Amino acid sequence: MIEKDKVVQFHYVLSDDSGQQLESSHNGSPMAYLHGHKNIINGLEEEMAGKAEGDKFIATIPPEKGYGLRNDELTQRIPVKHLQGAKKWKPGMIAWIETDQGQRQVTVIKMGKFMVTVDANHPLAGRTLSFDVEIQSVRDASEEEIAHGHAHGEGGHQH
Ligand code: ZN
Q1: What residue ranges define each of the domains in the chain, with the CATH number in brackets?
Q2: How far is the CA of 43 from the centre of ligand 1 (A)?
Q3: From the CA of 22, how far away is ligand 1's center (Å)?
Q4: Helices (H), 5-157
């Protein structure tokens, strides 16, 4: 059963509230995470608790328990030269910028010649998410995994 310090491998299909599929793990290896260590979004971790190998379920996660609500103040105009990650930029592309808190991912909204409007909200902020989950395996974490705070091996951290 899934509880703190278990390593869980699962397949998932992520859809938004209009039913559009955003991501799927089914064409690759299952995702692995260490339960109880905030490796995955809060709402999904809550739904996983108490489930077992072989369980299938759909979890609907509101933004507050997913990637947060959208904050309109995170949309700003910055110099184009601050964008990192590509040479040419188009609306919809994801860029990195340096901030006081380190690197941050932003979405390009509108390009000008010297200035660009970017949105620093997580791309899934403000969205209600639906995860169609299949639990593949549940096992005890190793001491090393608990010390690192994440799962090792297939679908987890490889180091
Ligand atoms: Zn590790």
Answers
A1: 6-67+125-148 (3.10.50.40), 72-119 (2.40.10.330)
A2: 24
A3: 28
A4: 42-48, 143-148
